[in-house]
């Protein structure tokens, strides 16, 4: 019985793939947090730039254009959050797939280990059985030899058997 699990390198590779996928999920969550922070900053900028209530027409138009630009920046930041969340969903799905593949190889490794243990138990039991049989045979042979020693052939002194 081969005691070595031949898919050990595959299992290590699957674990590495899962770790890489986990790292990608962590990175995408950081990107989501960064994009959400950008949205908050853009919202504060937009809120802080109230339209002037008085001034020249040019100043009013410039202020409205600036607010539209800030609103477009806010929309872009919100889009970044949406895109980052979509990337995170994809990466989480990839992580789940990597975990399934790793688990499949782990199950094979566990089955192999169980088979090796069962084989070892069978071998040990066979050895114990052999020892028991050998011991019983020795005892039986010893009792026959003891019986022969206890009852020696009795010969008559004149050389004839009785």
Would you give an account of this structure?
This protein has 162 residues and is mainly α. The protein contains two helices and no strands. Helix 1 runs antiparallel to helix 2. The longest helix is centred in the middle third of the chain and has 94 residues. The mean pLDDT is 87.
Oligomer: single chain
Residue share in β-strands: under 5%
Number of helices: 2
List how many beta strands DSSP finds.
0
* Shape label: rod-shaped
Helical fraction: over 70%
Question: What's this entry about, in short?
Answer:
The protein is mainly α and about 160 residues long. It has 2 helices and no strands.
Quickly list its features:
mainly alpha, single chain, 162 residues, rod-shaped, 2 helices
Please write out the topology.
Elements: H1 8-48, H2 57-150
Helix pairs in contact: 1-2
């Amino acid at each position: 019985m081969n005691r070595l699990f031949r898919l050990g390198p595959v299992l290590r590779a699957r674990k590495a793939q899962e770790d890489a996928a986990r790292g990608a999920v962590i990175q995408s969550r950081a990107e989501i947090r960064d994009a959400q922070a950008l949205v908050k900053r853009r919202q504060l900028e937009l809120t802080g730039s109230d339209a002037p209530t008085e001034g020249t027409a040019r100043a009013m138009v410039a202020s409205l254009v600036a607010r539209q630009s800030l609103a477009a920046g806010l929309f872009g930041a919100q889009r970044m959050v949406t895109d980052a969340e979509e990337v995170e969903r994809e990466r989480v799905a990839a992580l789940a797939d990597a975990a399934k593949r790793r688990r499949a190889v782990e199950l094979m490794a566990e089955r192999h280990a169980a088979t090796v243990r069962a084989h070892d138990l069978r071998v040990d039991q066979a050895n114990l059985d052999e020892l028991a049989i050998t011991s019983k045979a020795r005892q039986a042979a010893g009792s026959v030899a003891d019986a022969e020693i206890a009852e020696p052939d009795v010969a008559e002194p004149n050389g004839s058997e009785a």
